[in-house]
Amino acid sequence: MEKNDQVKQAVQDQFARNAERYVLSQTHAKGDDLDLLLDWLGPEMEWVVLDIATGGGHVARKLASRVELVVATDLTRPMLEAASRANRAQGADNIVYVQADAEALPFLDESFDAVTCRIAAHHFPDPEAFVREVARVLRPDGSFLFIDNVAPEDEELAGFVNRIENMRDTSHVRCLSVAEWKSAFERAGLIGSMERYRKKRFDFPDWVARTAESKEQEEAVEQALLSATDRQKAYLEMNVENGRVRTHQIDEWMVLCRKQRGDR
């Protein structure tokens, strides 16, 4: 099995085990970015929208009442099944669910008026392939709304952040920096028009338990944070009480891109 295939198998294993947790996760189910993405996209009722790596289906459900059809994809079938149950319970019936690899989408060129991808791309082993696929399936002048955790531009801090993320979630590949994402988008003809950069604070016990497979793994992540350098701790703005990590924060980037006409 090639390395990328091994990574994707790890993603499927991880999300199959935790599908219901992601549907119920307040980090994913809540957030002003869900309302903001509607304001930024300005969806129209005749649109057909693709939500890549839908996870718990929160973006798909948000869009469903504002467009004709949402196609929600995910690499993991149990994740799609959990999202479908939750969305149908909320009356979102104009969503179809397709098991698909974000780096090899099973759709024709220029099939969608808009594409979204929220808090998922750090699991993709080939981000460039993902971006090319977005540009391929998006209609000219179509919108791409992207949200993900991002690494700092500083190489040492970026390495630290990604190491902690991978310790906590073995399906994590890499958080890219904003500069890396912008370069990839521009090469694919996806030109940014709006962006937001924000700090996202987590309750550490809940964050680490969501994907860790054992108490030993949770403890190892906590010890790695407690033994971090002062500079690393300052970047995460860690809150430590009685020798235990209570909260920390990471960076998130949200951007709206338009596909240039003439680019495929």
From TrEMBL:
The record's section on InterPro entries has: Methyltransf_11 (IPR013216), SAM-dependent_MTases_sf (IPR029063)
Give the matching SUPFAM superfamilies: S-adenosyl-L-methionine-dependent methyltransferases
Q: Does the keyword S-adenosyl-L-methionine apply?
A: no
Q: Which Gene3D superfamilies match?
A: Vaccinia Virus protein VP39 (3.40.50.150)
PANTHER family attached to this UniProt entry: METHYLTRANSFERASE (PTHR43591)
Kindly provide the name given to this protein in its UniProt entry: Class I SAM-dependent methyltransferase
User: Biological process GO annotation list?
Assistant: methylation
One function term, GO molecular function aspect: methyltransferase activity
Any Pfam family from its record, for instance, is Methyltransf_11
Query: What is the species listed in this Swiss-Prot or TrEMBL entry?
Result: Brevibacillus brevis (Bacillus brevis)
Top-level division of the source organism's lineage: Bacteria
Determine if Transferase is one of this entry's keywords: yes
Q: Provide the Methyltransferase type domain boundaries.
A: 50-146
**Keywords carried by this UniProt record:** Methyltransferase, Transferase
